[in-house]
Write a structure and sequence with these properties.
By secondary structure, this protein is mainly alpha-helical. It has twelve helices and five strands. Helix 1 packs parallel to helix 4.
Amino acid sequence: MAEDIVLGELGALLLDGGSSVTDVRGSLEQVQRRSGTGSDLRFAVLPELVLVSRAGVSASTSIAYAGAKPLTFRQSAHANRLARDLEAGRRTLSDAPRRMAEIRSIRERMPATANILGIAILSMGLAALVRCPWWAILLAFFVGALVGTVTNAMSRVRSAAAIAPFVSALVSTVAVGAFAGWLGLGPVPLFAVCAPIAILVPGAIITNGLLELTSTDIVTGASRLVYGLIMLAFMAAGVFAGAHLTGLRIDSGSAALVAEAAHSVSDRSGWEALPRSGSPGSGSCSWRSASVSPSERDIA
């Protein structure tokens, strides 16, 4: 297989793994230099397209298409390892087509079930990390599974996938609000609402967009950044609509940042208490952030 075709397919593989166009172009240039073939190749990388052309030969441009199917985390790890091995010279370009075919052929067992269960465990873990009350940690698991089910179902329809962040955030907030209203819990901590939908936050998209903007990939970076902000706006609209429908109120004294969670205290017990903090003397537990006045410190 020709060198330009192999490099184009490698770039498409990295794009499917979630790499930014800046990183993909840099990786391809490094692999070409390491290959030592002396070919003068030029790379143009778009979010779903890699063009490889030879300098001075306008009719020889290879095109590789990405975006057919996003890679799983496992496949992405193998793809990035392959790129690093090629850059370091631990593999040759002649081995790359076979390895890329192996990476794309990796299949998960019961991917839908694994995705739903993974989102549920992630939601519960995040709620525990930010020291939500026990009821919120348990609820995050079930609501996270609900969010995973909704996103899986909507991702199968291309037109529905665009509004999946709004629908998932709406369903999640309605579930938390209905549960809190049914038990009369009053205002709920912020992260009890945010934990089940944290997986939907487009952090990687926005990060790649900013990276591309700072690397003069203006069109791609701006489009990614705008897309990420639209997704965040959809999520915020879903949370607002769900809170309005259920009368959900957020506790203004709850931890709003992860760093504040360690300082949350409570005099509540049972399933409304907070998990124990790892810091010494933090056996008391709730979602309200602690603020100690200078006079209280003097008394202590």
